[in-house]
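For homework, think about our next protein:
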Amino acid sequence: MNYLAFIFNLLIGTTLAYCQQSSKPPVFPLLSLSLDSGYQWLDKPFFNEINSEVKFIGLGEFSHGGKETILFKSKMIQYLVKNKGYRRLMIEYPNVVLHKINDYLLDKTLTNLDSVKAIARSTFGRTFLGNTSFYDLIIWLKQYNLSQPNDMVSVYGFDIEGASEAFATYFMNNYLIPFDRKNALDIGANANIVFKDSITSLELRWFQANKKTLKERLSKTSFRDLFYDVEAAQNKLLHAGLQKTNIYKASAFRDSIQAINILSLNDSKAIIWSHNIHITTSDYVVSAANYLKAIVGKQYYCVLTDFFNSATVWLISNEGSLSKKTFYVSPKTTSYLLHRKLGIDNGIVLFKDLKSNQIQVNNIDRFGNQATFGKGHPFDALVILGPVTPFIFN
């Protein structure tokens, strides 16, 4: 009995110690997340935090499948574009898939906003970005670019997942057929069309043999973007090989390449849209952000999201089927403890104001596996969201 009382007191003492050490950290309330409303309220937490030294900002999501995470990140992007001069949005997606969207956003002669939505819908389909909330962001970016034609925002992808398969069709239609129709037909005849990686491999060989000619005939920006896509396709093939032998090395390789891709487009201040697990700077997490921060240091700023009670989000199976599931917050997480102590349902809290070393953040992967992380300095700002609901596909 005395032993049980000791354990009980130890557990209660741990929670109280968190609360006492935190001594009521300032929490900045979330106001309207609509893109039609004001964004100046974000100055309160971020005006001094995100200074001129910060070149890369990671915007995380504890799950890919929640509506409110997309709404907050969209609002934050609006603030960063309008108030902080960020002109590149980098998405956890293969860049080769995003060309149509980026081209449309940057074309000063195309003004039909319905076309933006149609292109986004055809690009993302039934994926985690195929939803009305994200489409609203794309439309807002187009509106911004039309109003600032000499200072526009571009969209790039930095992931390698799906990069090889998408590259095969894109490179064939946009480069191989226009530049070398005979070899295009030969590659199509000799490759295994069921497995697009085989087409990609042959196309990559053609690129290496004709790189000098392409560099001469393309604009500097066009060749840079093509080379970026080629590297991503090559790295995806390497990643696929690692997945067959060591999934941990494959995961670390993917995040390291994500960081390289982000750094390779460093001519503009960039916003990084990704899952928490890729952009956290937590100890013992092999993340793109940890690779990135090791190089750029204080030029990187990390904003993670979390929930305080429950979250119902979309998941995707290994076979690609979608389903909804409700998750409940871990009682050891920062969001839960702040809610318990201060009654906070939503808000933004800064890492520098949290004095406890027991910081923990919820993490839900796309398959529905839930865990926590938080050792060291996992974020610079944590956004606590109220009830999180599944986004609406469109």
The mean pLDDT is 91. Residues 219 and 225 are 10 Å apart (CA to CA). The chain has 14 helices and eleven strands.
